[in-house]
Amino acid sequence: MPIVTIGSLPDPRQPSDPESASGPDLSDYVGLTDAALRSTRDTFIAESTVVVRRALDAGYTPRSFLLDERHTAVAEEFSGRFPDVPVFIGASEVLESLTGFHLHRGALASFRRPAPANAARLLSSARRVVVLEDVTEHTNVGAIFRTAAGLGVDAILLSPRCADPLYRRAIRVSMGTVFSQPWARLDTWPDGVTGVQWLKDQGFHVCALELTEDALPIDDPALRHLERLALILGTEGAGVLPRTLESVDASVIIPMEREVSSLNVGAAAAIAMWELRAR
Ligand SMILES: C[S@@+](CC[C@H](N)C(=O)[O-])C[C@H]1O[C@@H](n2cnc3c(N)ncnc32)[C@H](O)[C@@H]1O
After folding, report:
1. How far is the CA of 240 from the centre of ligand 1 (A)?
2. Do residue 196 and residue 87 come from a single domain?
3. Residue 131 CB less than 6 A away from ligand 1
């Protein structure tokens, strides 16, 4: 399939219509800044040549590539590697008009979403599991994935309302580790078939990372040699749900100084994943 140069700007006075304004083959790239819309689609978008290559290396099959015209060598490489996959190139203003934002890195690719992973299967041999309870910022989700991959976390479980790791910004901040780090979305949380009790039943010591009065300090010796640990991280702002705190084995705190009330959840996660790693 030849490399296709897209030259005309969609009319900015018209509401964006994926089928008519941009052509059916480019519709994957319309409305990229709408996270809610993106999470309902059966495709996801990877951004930057580094991250696109990580998705390809992880075995994801591309539907198309969209590149700034300065990336002609990359366009030829992808076209040679995937002869049946459309490669679009265009001037940066054409790409910006299509996608709704400025492509700093000048490279996007569309992929089909993988089938959801089975959470129970991920846990079978896991020793360290992180649960993201309603973490809503894509940048936090991406940062936590990157740290988890780097510090040997075996699986990440997402509560039903947690932000989508396959949203473009989460993928970018994760540096593509969302493609290699095992993760699954839970059907229920914190109760029900995939709740806190379910984790306990599989032999996990379940801890909430939270600033509660009765929390154990993160360097408490009792936390050092746990065989299986599931660590729950709370939502930005309100923190871990009261219902969850009632059900866990313990809360764990990173003691704070100088009137700082809490850390960013990604920073707290990084400290905890290191301190509570499997030894
Ligand atoms: C920004 S905090 C939420 C606000 C927090 N509940 C408070 O009272 O300020 C988001 C999450 O980060 C984690 N976190 C942040 N700082 C922490 C600390 N010092 N100790 C334990 N967890 C912390 C917890 O998982 C928390 O639910």
Report:
1. 8
2. no
3. no
